């Protein structure tokens, strides 16, 4: 008896497509099939609020007649000092917030890719989205790309799914450490289990705020951005109080220093996270895992120097570097400290206002810094440190919520991704703590060793998916969008 094998059905040949991966700190864009994105840019816009700008009407305007506003700047040019300009995020928590600016932002990427109007109308577009993306944002994204940019086909794909496929695994537990948030998502057969996903805001931004407090508040070091330094002078930390910085005449204006200074500090903090911060390892001789007790960890007395843009060299011991990294695994201590400081500051301000004190001395910069403190907001006084989960507690909670039959598959395929995961020792610490909490499970972690692969893993996964011929049948065409409508598409295709 002869047996025949049914022929494999493919959606079509490999197709070219645009892959767009919005992030809370940087956004990546490129072509499907490429190994890395061709263009990356900060997810911020620099604009002049004093100049009135017309909002873009998607129903009456078209991309062929589109002209970018002169008082809005994107890409690396946002770091150029400009008088009266402000910088605001376009994307927050990996979700697009400023849709008017996002149209010009996407146009910036298309221009950087040397795409003309007719090229965009011939190339499908794949857009990544986080688990917590709202229905309203999904409809808005389809409206912009299918109606305004008039791409022939469009698809929304979850970021953890892209990370899982970039690692070559259909089943995985994706631990994504981004700038605004930290998320843990189980992926089964390429589908994200949204009900089991957990997310907190204790990630890169929180660590940046911790670094800021470490230098400025605890050690009274005034961090001088690069563009304010006219002459660089090598000096030790003991001479910091005698520093007389020279500022170029072109940028002496206070508004330029205030607005651009805050943005430039983020670049310094990012460099410190990549070069200085370390994660301490668990002492193997101690079986009692305690995230609040540093005595269970081992460290040496190795010191390192960090040089600021003005030439100031600061010595940091290994324990100090460990303290900066501990905020990811034990954010409760830092959150409690910040809450106490804010409560004390509020009491002082209330006392000053009651006694008729002058509040004009409080600068706008300090208010902005407080609001940008890693989104640390404690809603009630009764909240304790235990209620603030770190990376390990987050991953452990998600793993325990998964069905016991598929739990071993996730333990065997834990993917750690995101720029913050590049902090030395983070993957090893997470592996040790999860192993201690689950002694009977075989844990295996996967993290790409290359810097670019780890930082752009979600884009790489989207590039792989969009370049497959078998993915062709999943595209939502413009004709289908017009016939079916966005509401039904979200229920059937983008749930």
TrEMBL record:
InterPro entries: Actin, Actin/actin-like_CS, Actin_CS, ATPase_NBD
Catalytic activities: ATP + H2O = ADP + phosphate + H(+)
Bias-annotated ranges (Basic and acidic residues): 357-381
Region (Disordered): 339-381
GO molecular function, one term: chromatin binding
Keyword terms, alphabetized: Activator, Chromatin regulator, DNA damage, DNA repair, Nucleus, Transcription, Transcription regulation
PROSITE patterns for the chain: ACTINS_2 (PS00432), ACTINS_ACT_LIKE (PS01132)
Compartmental location: Nucleus
GO BP of this protein: chromatin remodeling; DNA repair; kinetochore assembly; regulation of transcription by RNA polymerase II
GO cellular component terms, semicolon-separated: Ino80 complex; NuA4 histone acetyltransferase complex; Swr1 complex
Gene3D superfamilies: 3.30.420.40, Actin, Chain A, domain 4 (3.90.640.10)
Quaternary state and interactors: Component of the NuA4 histone acetyltransferase complex, of the INO80 chromatin remodeling complex, and of the SWR1 chromatin remodeling complex.
Entry's family note: Belongs to the actin family. ARP4 subfamily.
Function according to Swiss-Prot or TrEMBL: Actins are highly conserved proteins that are involved in various types of cell motility and are ubiquitously expressed in all eukaryotic cells.
The protein's name in its UniProt record: Actin
Originating species: Ascoidea rubescens DSM 1968
Lineage: Eukaryota, Fungi, Dikarya, Ascomycota, Saccharomycotina
